[in-house]
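User: My collaborator sent over this chain with a note saying "see what the structure looks like." That's all I know about it. Can you take a look?
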Amino acid sequence: MEVGQKVRVQRLRDRTNQAIIQRLGQTGVIEDYKMTDGSGVGFVVKFDDGFSTWYFEDELAPIG
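Assistant: Without extra context I'll predict from the sequence alone. Here is the result:
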């Protein structure tokens, strides 16, 4: 996955924040990378309404 790529949130690992749960099934654009735990990489996704948060790669599905 790359910055600028459109993705869909396909699952959530274990977060319970309602703002993030509401993004399940929505699409957004990867705007940056995030180091997660020193060995993994996450992706910062920005949605059409301006909200952004990060996800693990296995939580996202590329579109197109």
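A starting point for your reply to your collaborator: The chain has a mean pLDDT of 91.
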